[in-house]
Amino acid sequence: MFFIFGVNQKEEQLPFDQVVICDNCGKYGHMTVWVTYSYLMLFFIPFLKWGRRYFVRMGCCGAFCEISKEMGEKIANGEIKSLSSDDLPFKEMSELRHKCPFCGYSTDEDFQFCPKCGTKLVYRGSDTDENTQENTQKQD
After folding, report:
1. Contact 11, 36 (CB under 8 A)
2. How does DSSP assign the chain, residue by residue?
3. Phi then psi for 37, rounded to 5 degrees?
4. Distance (Å, rounded) from C-alpha 98 to C-alpha 48?
5. Which CA distances in Å does 38 have to 41, 53, 86, 133?
6. Separation of CA 7 from chain center
7. Is the pTM of this model over 0.70?
8. Measured at the alpha carbon of residue 20, what is the angle toward residues 19 and 25, in degrees to the nearest 5?
9. Cβ contacts of residue 108 below 8 Å, gap of 6+?
10. How far, in Å, are 16, 119, 126 from residue 64 at the CA level?
11. What are the backbone angles phi and psi of residue 125, rounded to the nearest 5°?
């Protein structure tokens, strides 16, 4: 006798969709709730799930944040019908956007120099970003 089993991860969208003005990008976007979990399969039938984590994701810019397990379960059961974006600490999916240290222009494009002023662009959140801003302030 032999057993066929495996462990896998899955991401599912919950039946929650709310249209809001995004605090990150200022556009209209759909706020959706997702759950991720790991599961054990026996003969290709999932029967044991663990490690559930719930996330809220913005469809306009890809910003996301993790929510508590209790809130996620309430959303899954239909007890919560709307969320306030003020209470959710969103993070951008693309943390490494180019930003001009001189004029402040930021872009997702892969430019090496700012299309507005010609200054070399740096990645937001990098060490060179802070050093370049200090040097620019000293020049002023």
Report:
1. yes
2. ----EEEEEEEEEEEEEEEEE-TTT-SEEEEEEEEEEEEEEETTEEEEEEEEEEEEEETTT--EEEE-HHHHHHHHTT------GGGS--B-S----EE-TTT--EESS--SB-TTT-PBPEETTSHHHHHHHHHHHHH-
3. -160, 165
4. 43
5. 10, 10, 30, 43
6. 25
7. no
8. 125
9. 94, 97, 98
10. 15, 31, 21
11. 95, -5
pLDDT in tens, 55-91: 999 988 888 899 999 999 999 999 999 998 777 887 6
Q: With beta carbons less than 8 A apart as the criterion, state whether 58 and 22 touch.
A: yes
Distance CA 93, CA 65 (A): 10
What does the chain come to in residues? 140
**Which pair of tokens denotes residue 96?**
């490494």
Structure tokens at 85: 């974006």
- CA-nearest of 108, 114, 113 to 96 is 108
Question: How far out from the chain centre does Cα 75 lie?
Answer: 19
In sequence order, the β-bridge partners of residue 54 are: 35, 67
